[in-house]
Amino acid sequence: MNRKFVNEESGADRNAPIGIFDSGLGGLTVFKAIKKLLPNENFVYLGDTARVPYGSKSRQTVQRFSEQICQFLLDIPVKAIVIACNTASSAALDYLESKVTVPIIGVIRPGVKALIQRGARMVGILGTSGTINSGTYLKALEAAGFSGETESQACPLFVPLVEEGWHNHVVTEQVARLYLQQMIMHSPDALILGCTHYPLLEPVLRRLLPKTFIIDSPAAVARDLATLLEEKALLRQSDAPGSTRFYITDLPQKFEELSRQFLGYELKNLEKLPIETLERYTEKHSC
Ligand code: DGL
Question: Could you report the per-residue pLDDT of 72-98, keeping only the tens digit for each?
Fold first, then answer.
């Protein structure tokens, strides 16, 4: 794929929705924070529930999935895109930034910025295997001038435990205790939850790391998005509350329960998007 994503309408229309996507429902933690800060905006949320998890897939696969989703969102058209997934942000943001013609942000740089503002010297980073193995957080910390200590830990079982609704369960606490063995000894000043599912694990993580400050990455993403839209004169000019369209590529069994956990309420206006619709974009644009 070497042609630019072109969508001339989307850059200009302040009333167009903001596109937000994740591999599944974890990105709803980011959507919730954005909606709180920008209640008058319209949104399109896409959860790629048919292909979740992204965390164990190769960089190339996650790039291809992310590219298909961006094309779909640009065809709506959206005025900006938020990659509400750490795995997709680490695998695909740099690549998509050079292709997508509307403002696009991921979740990693805003989280790192919030951490720098906090002035932490020793930082713990948790994430999926894809995110941790990519070293993206370490690179982003270095680029932001961070010179303290870091300790990274991949926690591949966290996403299935959250998806099972066991975010505050004794088994999850045992798993977390194993993953965080070293971190519990070192007690970092601050912790980055490098996966959009992990905010639901905060009660467990707080019990294990009581002295550690947990960075609120979703709120940091919301603030950065608001600044970006303001700079680009893309904030919606309306006092009326915005609306949201939710697309998912498959209906997970525990969907209602999960949406309540992530959002605090059950999702309405849900549309199932056949995965073939996304896959067609690769065929359409591959060279
Ligand atoms: N939401 C993804 C992230 O932030 C985790 C889920 C997955 O592995 O797809 O990394």
Answer: 999 999 999 999 999 999 999 999 999
